[in-house]
Design a protein that fits this description.
This protein is an alpha/beta fold. About 25% of the residues lie in helices and about 30% in strands. It has a domain of about 120 residues: Rossmann fold (3-Layer(aba) Sandwich). The strands form two sheets. The chain has a six-stranded mixed sheet. A three-stranded antiparallel sheet has the order 1-9-8. The protein binds 1-O-pyrophosphono-5-O-phosphono-alpha-D-ribofuranose. 1-O-pyrophosphono-5-O-phosphono-alpha-D-ribofuranose binds next to strand 2, strand 5 and helix 4. The site of 1-O-pyrophosphono-5-O-phosphono-alpha-D-ribofuranose (PRP) has 16 residues, from strand 2, strand 5 and helix 4.
Length: about 190
């Protein structure tokens, strides 16, 4: 079961957002999306891996016959931060032409991934493209209306849980935690 894998990862230190706070926000977002898309259910596009937990809960908070697809993207290391270049590792299966597309992200940090994905998805001629992000960095500046649905503004701490990882760990924590980068080990 991998229990013998060495554990040398920064440890979650304190809860930033409890599972209850997240659940309340997800319910609000789901209700808004249900109202906004009453005439035509959206196609939810999740960005792997981080968005899979949020998208799972969000979709069940939307009282419409939504459809699902997923993309996986990968950066080219540090060059991505300056160039905004993102590589598509897994593309969508569904044709977006004429669809009401709702892009679902766990976190918008620098905004480079979102900027790339918006341009990429708009080129596929959807009827509409909106973005729902659970977490958006406090200092992230964006053009008005780029992110239609925002869950929480969050500080520039290293966050894990509810889909967010460090070294592929902690995605399954129910709360969203701040990591202490100087520590080792697993959550208390
Ligand atoms: C995270 C998150 C976004 C991206 C945001 O993914 O899910 O896709 O980073 O960062 P940006 O705004 O600075 O571009 P990550 O690369 O950590 O991969 P993961 O979802 O597989 O954990």
């Amino acid at each position: 079961m991998g229990q013998d894998r060495p554990v040398e990862l920064p440890a979650p230190q304190r809860v930033l957002l409890s599972a209850e706070q997240v659940a309340e926000k997800v319910a609000e977002l789901g209700a808004q999306i249900t109202a906004d898309y009453a005439s035509e259910a959206p196609l939810l596009v999740g960005v792997l891996k981080g968005a899979f937990v949020f998208m799972s809960d969000l979709s069940r908070a939307i009282d419409l016959p939504v459809e699902f697809d997923f993309m996986a993207v990968s950066s080219y290391g540090h060059s991505t931060r300056s160039s905004g270049v993102v590589r598509i590792v897994k593309d969508l299966d569904i044709d977006l032409a004429g669809r009401q597309v709702l892009l679902v992200e766990d976190i918008v940090d620098s905004g480079l991934t979102l900027n790339y994905l918006r341009r990429n998805l708009l080129a596929r001629n959807p009827a509409s493209l909106e973005v729902c992000a659970l977490l958006v960095r406090d200092d992230f500046q964006f053009e008005e209306d780029v992110i239609r649905y925002t869950g929480f503004r969050v500080p520039a701490d290293w966050l894990v849980g509810y889909g967010l990882d460090v070294g592929e760990r902690y995605r399954n924590l129910r709360d969203i935690w701040v990591v202490d980068p100087s520590s080792d080990g697993i959550p208390d």
